[in-house]
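Quarterly update from the structural biology core.
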Amino acid sequence: MAKYLIKANYAGDGITGLMNEGGTKRKAAAEAAIQSVGGTLESMYYAFGDTDVYAIGDFPDAATAAAASLLVNSTGAVSLSLTPLLTVEDMDAAAAKGGSYTPPGG
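Predicted structure, tokenized:
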């Protein structure tokens, strides 16, 4: 399974729901949503500032991660973004592929 960084921000009714239900219930709802498409929630943290929630999710493939994003974003109560996370071994494999590139003006 591939790991994804999940960043979420509550909006409108989502904020009201969080205030009424508390963080524990919202974590359970996030976990259930991710499991419903075939992923798992590894960890979840609340924050304040630019982002309300940071989480790590495991998904079998990009389509499953996208399904979770669509599922949550379609409600309009939460704005969710996912960023694929690479292991150090993934980065080693990427670096080993080489390739060529000419930068602008090069």
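The beta strands are 2-10, 40-46, 53-59, 78-84.
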